[in-house]
Design a protein that fits this description.
Length: 194
Amino acid sequence: MTVRDRRAADAMCRPFQRHLVLSLIGRDASISELVADSGLSMRALHYQVVRLVKLGLLKIASRTRRGGRPIKRYTAAAEVFFVPESLLTWRPGAVLERELRDALGRAHADGVLFYRDSAGGMSMRDVRTAPVDKRIVTDIWQILNLDEHEAKQLAAEIKKLVEHVKTRPPHRRQKKYLVRCALLLRTGDDLFLP
């Protein structure tokens, strides 16, 4: 389904609304069934679902008669949603990118101390006065010399590792971690500069 309405495109860019739509692809659920997963009140979730129905992203899958109002079950309006670039109010990952960028920005050292060590060699180390953000488990920046095949192989291995971790059965001690991996071919005159 191609999203043509700017408000529907905006909804698909918002993490909660996008998650709600995508969670109903290939299945249907009532509002009360969705409340447990959402963390919202029944009233707030009902508002979101009705809005997504009006935008054409969700539809009513069925109505079950009962004593009062019928129970409505909702499903996604399509299996796949395409939002044209011209309608994107922001990139869907922008909120996560900002969260990661802000955390990494706060994690930087106050400066770098350059000096000669006792053996006369050039040394450097971060100087930090603020405490380290304990949420950051690792932050790796590395320039690697790879040919095109090696770069594709590394990308496939990273993707395979992330997919493996993502599909493991959940347990209670788990917490949510944001993982961002990218592999970029550097071009231009300043290839030796960071």
